[in-house]
Amino acid sequence: MTSSTARTTWVIRGALALGALALVFAALGSRTAVEAPLPTATARSVEIQEVAPLRPSPTGEPVVERIISRLARETQVPYPTSTPAPAGLAFVNVVDFGYMPTVTRIHVGETVVWRNGGRENHDVTGEDDWHSGPIEGAVEYRHTFGFAGTFNYRCSVHLDMHGTIIVLP
Question: 25, 26, 80, 110: which one has the fewest Cβ atoms less than 10 Å from its Cβ?
Fold first, then answer.
């Protein structure tokens, strides 16, 4: 493409753009404003009354609106707190792979309750031939100790789990 052809092309484009702008301005200038019809004058007699000037007047007490909002909510679950164990009972929790506490002190005639709070099956097997059998989740085992002494126990499923009950006179 030669420079004269390019110049001619740009001159034509410019002329077209100017023509388009001229059409837009012509269209905008030819619009007529819509005028509302003027009221026609009729002969009427008008009485003028004198009006007292407006003066501020005292206001009453402010109105207080009370908005009561009620939301329906579920009652929250109470937060777990430490409650004393019933007399004559001691609790041992079987959690994961251990007994908590590992050493429990009680008196003669009191009962120890083992609760399995984990997902694994455990048991309680004493050295002097007492055995709980499988303690599954949410199941508990109770054993009452009738005389003083130290009683060791373990889990026969998990051999590294062990605990001690000390029975005081």
Answer: 80
Global confidence as pTM: 0.49
- The C-alpha atoms of residue 19 and residue 38 are separated, in whole angstroms, by 39
Inter-CA distances, 7 with 2, 4, 14, 131, Å:
9, 5, 11, 107
**Which of 124, 84, 128, 88 is CA-nearest to residue 108?**
88
Question: How would you classify the pairing of strands 89-95 and 111-116?
Answer: parallel
**138/80 Cα distance (integer angstroms):** 17
Q: Hey, which residues does 99 pair with through a beta bridge? A: 94
Handedness of CA 105, 111, 112, 113 (dihedral sign): negative
CB 126, CB 153: distance < 8 Å: yes
* Greater pLDDT, 66 or 141: 141
Query: How many CA atoms are closer than 13 Å to the CA of 157, on its beta-carbon side?
Result: 15
Structure tokens at 14: 């410019």
What are the structural domains, with CATH classification, of the chain?
A: 89-168 (2.60.40.420)
